[in-house]
């Protein structure tokens, strides 16, 4: 049986485990929902723009999360061979669907906080 690993390389669950749990684990990883929400606000963003908007996340962690989201098909990456290299990110169709879910959670959190 294969075992799924996170970017921190620790066991999460077997590959054939509950798909819901697989995605909840992915989305609950620190900064992941923030990144999806932020990318959902525009068609594409450069790495530096994302980094500036999420000032508390390190470049290393941001890179890891973007790679993780890209591996799962939620984010696309385009590199332009300029000097310095320009890297743009955006949401795939699947990522846009996820952004709608994140938006709904944000709205509900706002509702609950205003009670």
Main sheet?
A: 3 strands, antiparallel
Mean pLDDT: 88
How big a fraction of the residues is strand?
A: 15-25%
Backbone shape:
globular
Name the features:
single chain; about 120 residues; alpha+beta; 3-stranded antiparallel sheet; two-stranded antiparallel ribbon; 5 helices; globular
Describe the protein in words.
With 115 residues, the protein is α+β, with helices and mostly antiparallel strands. The protein has helices spanning 19-27, 32-39, 47-53, 59-71, 93-113; strands at residues 3-5, 11-14, 45-46, 75-80, 86-91. Strand 1 and strand 2 (11-14) form a beta hairpin. The termini are far apart. The mean pLDDT is 88.
What is the gist of this entry?
The protein is α+β, with helices and mostly antiparallel strands and 115 residues long. It is built from five helices and five strands, in the order E-E-H-H-E-H-H-E-E-H.
Task: Present the secondary structure layout.
Blueprint: E1 3-5, E2 11-14, H1 19-27, H2 32-39, E3 45-46, H3 47-53, H4 59-71, E4 75-80, E5 86-91, H5 93-113
Antiparallel strand pairs: 1-2, 3-5, 4-5
Helix pairs in contact: 2-5
């Amino acid at each position: 049986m294969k075992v799924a690993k996170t970017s921190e390389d620790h066991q999460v669950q077997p590959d054939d485990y509950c798909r819901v749990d697989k995605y909840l684990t992915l989305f609950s990883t620190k900064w992941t929902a923030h990144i999806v929400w932020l990318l959902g606000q525009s068609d594409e963003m450069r790495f530096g723009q994302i980094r500036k908007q999420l000032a508390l996340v390190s470049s290393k962690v941001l890179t890891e999360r973007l790679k993780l989201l890209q591996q799962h098909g939620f984010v696309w990456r385009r590199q332009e061979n300029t000097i310095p290299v320009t890297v743009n990110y955006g949401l795939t169709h699947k990522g846009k669907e996820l952004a709608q879910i994140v938006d709904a959670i944000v709205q509900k959190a706002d509702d609950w906080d205003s009670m």
